[in-house]
Amino acid sequence: DMEDWRNGKCEAKTVLALLKSLENFVKLEADLLAAHEDYSMYDALKLLEKKHETNPNFEKTLKGNGENSYCRSYISELFSGIYLKEMKVYADWISAKIKADDHSPWERPEDFDVKEKAIQDEFYKTPLKKLAPDHAKAFKDLPSTLKKLDSESEKIVGKKAYQAECETDITRNKKLIFLFFSEVQFLQKLLLVLSIGVWAAFAMLKIADLKPVLLPARSDFPTGKEP
What is d(CA 42, CA 216) in angstroms, rounded to the nearest whole number? Predict the structure, then answer.
């Protein structure tokens, strides 16, 4: 879709509208997870401290285990401390490039590493307690959050953010469906020809009164000389 704009196949406003929906979706995901303590790293830490004595620096270890690139997942504090900020950096870059009418290839900016490191450093310096979500408020807002998620997902997956100038998935699907049924019609014809051939072969066998030759039963073999 970003390539469609870069190659002049889609207007800037359609890509920016979709980008905005993606930003909203990430924020709503954070609101959804905040509704229950199971998704909170801070709640997990407090529960562990109730069960067993922990090292004073264990919070940093817990953050490191959740934030590293191969373990990132649906954790409330990662949304507020990492994901939302990284999404903003990404969205700002795309918006700036489009608004500047820069149609050069999409390549990761060199300053992304610096900005990523700054976000991570801030996350590790900020206490989990400060990043922890307000469960009561999030739970109260849950019906509204779910409705908004449904709306934004329709804009993203359903391509409602796209205008007529962009070829939609529906158009592509119609082409695929046409090709599919063309193949089905060909297979139907092929199966019909094969069925006629099989029927003709059995008819010829019947006419010639050919019967299959059966092997004798095991009891027909001489005792002690069974193959």
Answer: 77
